[in-house]
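Extended Data, panel c. Modelled sequence:
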Amino acid sequence: MIAASPPESAATAEIVVVGAGACGLTAALAARAKGADVVVVERDRVPAGSTALSAGLIPAAATRWQAAAGVSDDADTLFADIMAKSKNTADRVIARAAADAAGPAVTWLADAHGLPFELVDGFVYPGHSARRMHAMPERTGAALVDRLRAAAEAAGVTILTNARAETLYMDGERAAGVGIARPDGEEEAIAARAVVVASNGYGGDKARLARHIPEVLDALWFGHDGNDGLALAWGEALGADLEHLSGHQGHGSVAVPHGILITWAVITGGGVQVDATGHRFSNEAEGYSEQAARVLARPGGLAWSVFDGRLAAVARQFEDFRRAEAEGAIITAPTVADLAARAGLPADALAATLAAVAAHARDGTADAFGRTFAGPPLAAPFAAVKVTGALFHTQGGLATDARARVLRRGVPVANLFAAGGAAVGCSGPSAAGYLSGNGLLTAVAMGYVAGGAAAA
């Protein structure tokens, strides 16, 4: 809801940030670094959001972690990769701003707030020209958001939990604060000089999904329920510009029935996906986001990711994969025939599929889907996991400028900012435009930009 100026009884803050995921907490830290009084309002009891459900990977270029690993990279290359993956449909202003800000943001979070970033080694995600994924040692989004929360608290940021933002106050052409509701129904208002909307997208809003992305309406929802379309509702009521509402991030590898994300590293290193017939059905190397719809289109909306012990060893750097192993989601076998028997797949078909893949890997030739295979052919012990396609979050939202200011009829609202899932990302209008890590790229990089700009 949009309302006029907050009541005289409202509490006050210089900046109110809506949402305490990676985007909101980074924005709060950036604003606090410039001396601003910052209040973050979070609907849940503990800050988590979509960040906590992710692998916590932030693509950033020209960092000291890359330099230490001998990786040559720069913001221009990251920007080019973003645009190439989206086939030049991504918002160029946001893609450029995010590519430029990601490296400085990650470096600042490490230096000023002690976040122990590491460069993810061993593989390169689809569409990236270099190893540039930065993560916490645990390789989880939960670890990332926990450290951001601790940093924000240590920096003097006020975080109000169990505080659901419902109202955006507008004083003419300027944002004037937010109204929140408590679980017991009590309502409060906070007047502010600037508002940063970091409340995420609308993946949990079935009505809006049916309108904008009907193809994923029946997909497994793997996002946070805080993705309820609040930012979009405010934007619609405000008459703000909206962009790429059909854009989204899917994922073609969530273990069934365990509901555990299986890292795409098992695919990029030479693994494949087959359906119930034991045959492949796509070029898996194009990306895990577009693979979600392809998996959902197979019989039963299921597929099997097939890989080997070498790739499982790479995947074990991720806590989710180790948990999947502990819960029995990963099947292993000494031969392809044994693997097929354990998975309930046709042995002859699976053997023929993997033999063809091995031949392409040895010869360096492309298969019928246009995929070439890096690394050696799959070898014993073999492994597989049954997966489905899922929707993680939307990538469209409020249109913003390079300073993360919300646009209305092309003109920035001077003190209303949006970033992360609340704003348009840099993936364009489809799942296929999503470059691995785009979600946390815009959350952290544009959160950093939004917080600094709001404080200014």
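The domain at 2-204+395-455 is CATH 3.50.50.60 (FAD/NAD(P)-binding domain). This feature is highlighted in the accompanying rendering.
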